[in-house]
Amino acid sequence: MPAQHILQVSELTRKVRFIIESELNTVWLTGEISNFVPASSGHWYLSLKDSKSQIRCAMFKGNNQKTNITPRNGQQVLVRAKVSLYEPRGDFQLIIEQMDDAGEGLLRQQYEQLKNKLNALGIFSSVHKKSIPTHIQRLGIITSPTGAAVKDILTVLNRRNPNINVIIYPALVQGKYASNDICHAIAQANDRNECDVLIVGRGGGSLEDLWSFNEESVVHAIYDSIIPIISAVGHEIDTTLSDYVADLRAATPSAAAELVSSDSDELLKKITLFTQRLTDAIGRKYAILNQQLGYYQHRLAQVHPEQQLRIHQQKSDELNVRLKQVISRIISQAHYHPERT
What we know:
By secondary structure, this protein is of the alpha/beta class. It folds into 3 domains: 12-102, CATH 2.40.50.140; 121-125 and 133-262, Response regulator (Rossmann fold); 267-333. Helices cover 47% and strands 21% of the residues. It is built from 10 helices and 10 strands. The protein has helices spanning 9-24, 61-64, 102-120, 148-160, 178-192, 216-224, 241-245, 253-260, 264-303, 305-336, and strands at 26-38, 44-49, 54-59, 76-86, 91-101, 138-143, 165-170, 197-202, 229-233, 248-249. A 5-stranded mixed barrel has the order 1-2-3-5-4. Helix 4 packs parallel to helix 8 and helix 5 (178-192) packs parallel to helix 6 (216-224).
């Protein structure tokens, strides 16, 4: 019977690490932070635990710089991590790639799942997006009538182009009934068909505050809208599913107002410039046509019957004069040389 291979400790830990990483790969895990240590290297070391177990974790600098939270002991978090083994100590551990507060983390997971689902259906495809009119006369705004967003939009419009007619379709933009309100407002605007474009949005907030704009019903309402829609939700760093499905995304409500309004002073300058260019072009064309007219008038005068008659009369007069001159010479010669007659 052949002798059995005897493993070194390092060989065993290497094999176990390979098996763990190849079989489990990436997992989502929720738990409470304990023993949190931010190392001078920038890496984070901690444990995640529940009432029965705990596991050591590491989150390296390149990943933890992307998180929006500052971990603390006792905090409930949701993490995405790779299962691994720290070979020098033989410790089972997690390498955390993403960390969120447990409540917001679950929302973010739902967000990613719904985003992938809708993207697979082609809802976000650019082929479905409608163009935004260049010159907008009637603008619809779907937002809270008392929120900061509508005030920012109206301020920008009043400064840049106060001639745009604004119709506000009031809707809740946060809370349990917000998604129904937003869908109803979009449907109402389409039924009335009184706007060139719609701005749908609100000011900034947490992921939970903005969640109505990630609801599947709102995404489909924007997708089905006949009127072009600009999504203007939150701040520049906030991205909702409404942004992906809308015909155009604006970083903020104020930015949306900038997009739909032409600066009246700039427009006046352009009109003045185009008027001058048109005047110059008309002047040049007039000069060319006037020159051509003189040429054709001259040509017409040359072939006019009266002019032709004058030419023939002049030729006849010249022939008559020459004839008289010839006769006069003959007579003169006859007087001086009578023998020739």
